[in-house]
Amino acid sequence: MTLTRRFIALGLPALLFARPAIAHHGWRWTDDGRFELRGLITEARLGNPHGVLTIDAEGEIWKAEVGQPWRNERAGLTDAMLAPGTDIKIIGKRAADPEERLVKAEAIELSGALFELYPERL
Predict the structure, then answer these.
(1) Comparing 50 with 110, which gets the higher pLDDT?
(2) Is residue 85 part of a domain?
(3) Which domain holds residue 112?
(4) 14 is a domain residue
(5) Confidence at residue 111, expressed as pLDDT on a 0 to 100 scale
(6) Quick one: pLDDT at residue 3?
(7) pLDDT tier at 31 (50, 70, 90 boundaries)?
(8) How far, in whole angstroms, is CA 82 from its chain's centroid?
(9) Is position 15 within any domain?
């Protein structure tokens, strides 16, 4: 089978069924302003490609992307610190779509301590 036919047989179906969420990683989906969110962690899904926290902010449910495991560790965060029931302040960029309750954390504040996930962006 030629290389072109292999691409068509294997690659084309993958492109047809690719999910748009794949393009979500990075910062292009966020707005340019600084955003702060305070609330209570209700769920934590940590790991690769990045962690996602569900946060109850005065009755509004938000999702917050935090760093990859290595980035969280480098900032001084442990999984236990991001457990459900924890009061948290997220500092970062919110989704450009104002209807979407999603924020990408550049830093996290817990009990007055600041953990900088992306110090170069602050």
Answers:
(1) 110
(2) yes
(3) 23-121
(4) no
(5) 96
(6) 53
(7) confident
(8) 13
(9) no
